[in-house]
Each structure stands twice: as structure tokens, then as C-alpha cells.
Amino acid sequence: MNRLICTTVLLAAIALAGCKREEHPARQRIAIATTIEPLTRAPQLDDEGSGRFADTDRLTLLVSDDAARQSAQFGYTPQTTLYWSELGFAAPGTTLTFAACYPEQELAGGRFDFDLEQAAEKDLLLARTAGVSAGTERTIDLSFRHAMHRLVVIYQTSDPDVALDAIETRCTAQSTCTVDLAAGTLTPAGTRQATFTESGREVRFLLVPQPTDGVSLELHVGADIRKVSLGELAEGIDRIEGGRQLHVTLTVRNGRIEFGDAVIEGWEDQGSIEDEIIL
User: Fold this and answer.
1) Of 17, 18, 24, 231, whose CB is crowded by the most CB atoms within 10 A?
2) Is a pLDDT exceeding 90 seen at residue 67?
3) For every residue of the chain, which 3-state class applies, written as one string?
4) What is the pLDDT of residue 38?
């Protein structure tokens, strides 16, 4: 009798353990780590533009199986907990792509339109990690990059009568693009342009990646106005790229604006540009 009872208890324990093993994958947490690559300022970023998200920052997370053409979209914050059971199409052995963007966006077919003129937060951040095995216990790293280009215009002068802080800079450029989040690509949309205005001795503009000859600057220095194409200033640089920044230094002296160095940070040396504009 004792042997029968022990055998029954042992079988029950084995069955219970089997049930737990079957339930475990359903509650297995998806481990995600997020970081932000440097360039521009955004929530919780340092002067170089790198950092982390705040707990309340809301992102859009898209998990897709390209082979089966299935996907799932989630509103995500650093406090969100996701489980593999929430991905009904993620069978063991499936290879998935995790992609995300900040700020949160409404997706249609894994894509969304982004308009710098309308966006409250212009610093669009994108991340994409492919080749993730469904059910993995490894942390999925999402390293966010800045999707826009940053144009920095700096004024300098030796003339005490020139008020650099009063200089107004107007930048006109194509402002809309379509983002394929799953593919991690950004394509300019349409031909509509917008004008962005900043004042001061150092100004910054976030721009959709595009040819430099389609970007123009209108400089208001006192009563003098001058308009110039970015393609004229950055000779040899055909495009402004996402995640990069272009510095243009302008010297105001004796009634004229002199153009100094223009370089792309992060690129190999492309030389320098010296030019001037007579007002």
C-alpha cells in the first residue's frame, strides 16, 4: 500500500512538473533593452544626443515575421512587460524583426507619414533588430538612431556693432517623408516644402534627408537679406543624411557674410569650404 501511495504521489508530481513546463513559455517575458545613439537632443539625452528614455516616454513597437507576412503592434514604454504568448504567430523557430520609433505613431501596413512642419516632437528616433529567434531568453537590443538630419548654422563677427543674437535664419526644405518601420527605411514624400525660422548666433534645424540643392537659407542681418542654396555652400556634398549633422559657420564682417568650414560629423574628411556673400 505504501509503495502504491508513493508511486501515485510521484506520478502526480511528474505530471505537475510537466504542466508547469507547458505553461512557462506562455508567460515567458520578452526582454528588451533600449539605447539612443548620439546626435540631437531628445528626452533624457546628454549634450551629444545619446542617453535613455524616461519611464513615461511612449514608443511604437512593431514585431513582424517577414516570411509569413504577419505582425503585431504595441504601444510601449520602458515599464511595459510583453510576453511571447502575445505574439500568436511567433512559433518556436520563427525568425522575427523588432522595430520601434519615438514618438509614438499610428501605423498603416507597418508604415507612417512624418511631417516636420506638423510634428510636435521633430526628433524622430528609429530602431530595428532583425534575426530574433521567437522565444529567446536573450535581451533584444534596440539601439535608436536619429532619423532626421541636423543643420547647425553658427554666426561669428569681430564687428561690435553687429548683434549676432538678432540675426534671423530661415531654412526652407522638403518637410515630409514616409517611414517603413519594419524595413527601417525613410523616403521623402511629395515635393511640398516648409520654412523653419530661428533667431540667434547659433541655430539648429532638423531636416528630412534630401539633396542639398533643395535646401535654402535666407539670412536676415539687420536690414540686409541674403538667400543661398545649401548646395552652393556645401560643394561636394550632394545629400544631407539622417543621423548626421552639418555645421555651417558664417562670419559677418564689414557688411558681408563670409562662409567658413562645412563638414559632416561622422564622415571621412571631405575638406572644407570657404566662401563669402556680399550684402
Assistant:
1) 231
2) no
3) CHHHHHHHHHHHHHHHHHHHHHHCHHHCEECEEEEECCCCCCCCECCCCCECCCCCCCEEEEEEECCCCEEEEEEECCCCCEEHHHCCCCCCCCEEEEEEEECCCCCECCEEEEECCCCCCCCCEEEEEEEEECCCCCCEEEEEEECCEEEEEEEEECCCCCCHHHCEEEEEEECEEEEECCCCEEEECCCCEEEEEEECCEEEEEECCEEHHHCEEEEEECCEEEEEEHHHHCCCCCEECCCCEEEEEEEEECCEEEEEEEEECCCCCCCCCCEEEEC
4) 54
